[in-house]
Write a structure and sequence with these properties.
The protein contains 16 helices and 17 strands. The chain is an alpha+beta fold. The strands form 4 sheets. An 8-stranded antiparallel β-sheet has the order 2-1-12-11-10-9-8-7, with helices on both faces. The chain has a 5-stranded antiparallel β-sheet with strand order 13-14-15-16-17, with no helix packed on it. Helix 3 runs parallel beside helix 9 (161-175) and helix 15 (339-353) runs antiparallel to helix 16 (360-368). It starts with 6 loop residues before the first helix and ends in an 8-residue tail after the last strand.
Length: 447
């Protein structure tokens, strides 16, 4: 469909009101937004606060954790390596990481960097994330992936942080330097992205940074936890500002220029696997390229996008319409809420149709807010009024072996049981519930 007259400028003119309304409705503390068009940023603004305890305002240079919006950034780092002929998207991972393996030896030999960047390796969804939660580092998690059963290779889509991280590690090994340094030298420095990094320590050191907030009640967000994503940094560890990310979007919309030939980036921005098949003949399907979600809008325009979220306090979204030469990014410091997705969807409607055609915040929040709710068979259930007694505490004590998770040790101190697990030596008090059932409380990204 043709664009309405003055489409981008008219859409930009409404962004202030959209952003302010979304923060007011949701309770998310802060957000930064930028728009690029014609090869440059035409809008960059902050809303709300970086930290509710200080009240310091968000501005276009405020650094946010990007979470999974790191994946398309990592795809562009890889495209630069492809352009330099350091690797190809079709390079087998074991050529660069001889120690890497999956449970099927045939798949191990064949799986490529592109397979891992498109989530089509056969690894189960979010493989390895909980290993990170209990303290395993990047190499340890990647080595344990070989213990997981695989779905059919290259015809199964399952979103995995550590699968993509393995692909990035192969790129870094081929370049002969750590991934974080490779990204800095090959992408961030040439683009002038001076506030952007894959290192959590760099994010913590920024004076102008947004602090993560979790939703503790409807409309109530609190800064209670910190998310260190270094173990899966290529998949979720970037921190950046919207001013920096506007430079990145301009490069992507220019098909990689001036950093690389368009042919090096093109595979990332074209469908490599069906990620969400249509459920009826008239329905549009969704696709994944290399690090990018790809779809077709109701105006028949290709859309490249990606969201990011930390349950411990980040929500982000980028959306680009290459045929309209426009991109928008929204970064928030609240756990998954639907706010950044609703803002970019409203903007995309305004650009394409001159009006917002769907209640985007209602649609997104109804699906995304429940993702922050506690889950588990005992959630919301009171313990028995007359619980069965436990056995002698000594009968539970010992070390329980598991090759994937590592050993778990149950010990007794001062008449109480404690569970120890993970390489950090995390320890959790076990509270008796009923018979042989004990509870323990843990706060992690996936808990």
């Amino acid at each position: 469909m043709p664009l309405p007259g003055n489409a981008v400028d008219n859409a930009v003119a409404k962004l202030d009101g959209i952003a302010e309304q979304l923060l007011q409705t949701s309770g998310v503390p802060g957000m930064a937004v930028a728009v690029v068009h014609g090869g440059k940023a035409i809008y960059a603004k902050g809303f709300g606060v970086r930290d509710i305890r200080t009240g310091e305002a968000v501005d276009p240079d405020t650094v946010f954790q990007l979470a999974s919006l790191s994946k398309p950034v990592s795809a562009t780092v890889t495209a630069r390596a492809v352009d330099a002929k350091t690797v190809g998207w079709d390079t087998p991972v074991v050529e660069k990481l001889p120690w890497f393996a999956l449970s099927d030896p045939a798949v191990t030999r064949m799986v490529t960097i592109g397979d891992l960047f498109s989530h089509r390796s056969g690894l189960p969804e979010h493989a390895g994330d909980q290993l990170e939660d209990i303290g395993y580092d990047r190499r340890a998690v990647l080595e344990k992936l070989r213990q997981l059963p695989l779905d059919p290779f290259r015809i199964s889509y399952a979103y995995t942080n550590f699968g993509l991280t393995a692909g990035a590690e192969a790129v870094a090994a081929a370049a002969g330097e750590p991934w974080e340094q490779l990204a800095q030298e090959s992408l961030f420095e040439p683009l002038g992205m001076t506030s952007t990094s894959y290192r959590f320590a760099d994010y913590q050191a920024r004076q102008n940074r947004a602090v993560g907030h979790i939703r503790v009640a409807p409309g109530d967000y609190q800064p209670r936890y910190t998310r260190d994503p270094d173990a899966q940094s290529p998949a979720g560890g970037v921190s950046s500002s919207v001013n920096d990310m506007a430079r990145w979007m301009s490069m992507v919309l220019a098909e990689g220029r001036p950093l690389m030939q368009p042919a090096s980036l093109l595979p990332a921005l074209t469908p490599q696997i069906v990620s969400s098949p249509g459920s009826e003949p008239a329905m549009r399907s969704g696709f994944y390229g290399y690090g990018f979600n790809l779809s077709t809008t109701a105006a028949a325009r290709t859309e490249a996008s990606h969201s990011g979220a930390f349950q411990l306090g980040a929500g982000t979204n980028v959306l680009m319409l290459p045929s309209a030469d426009v991109g928008i990014i929204a970064l928030t410091n609240g756990t998954i809420s639907g706010v950044p997705e609703a803002l970019t969807a409203q903007f995309a409607d305004l650009v394409q149709f001159g009006e917002v055609r769907e209640p985007w915040y209602d649609l997104y929040s109804s699906r995304m807010l429940p993702m922050s709710d506690p889950v588990g068979s005992l959630v919301g259930k009171n313990p028995p009024a007359d619980p069965a007694p436990a056995q002698q505490l000594s009968s539970y004590m010992g070390t329980y072996r598991n090759d994937f998770w590592g050993p778990a040790t149950v010990s007794e101190r001062d008449g109480k049981l404690f569970l120890g697990m993970g390489p950090r030596g995390d320890s959790f008090e076990l509270t008796h519930r009923d018979g042989n059932v004990f509870n323990f409380s843990v706060v992690t990204e996936n808990a």
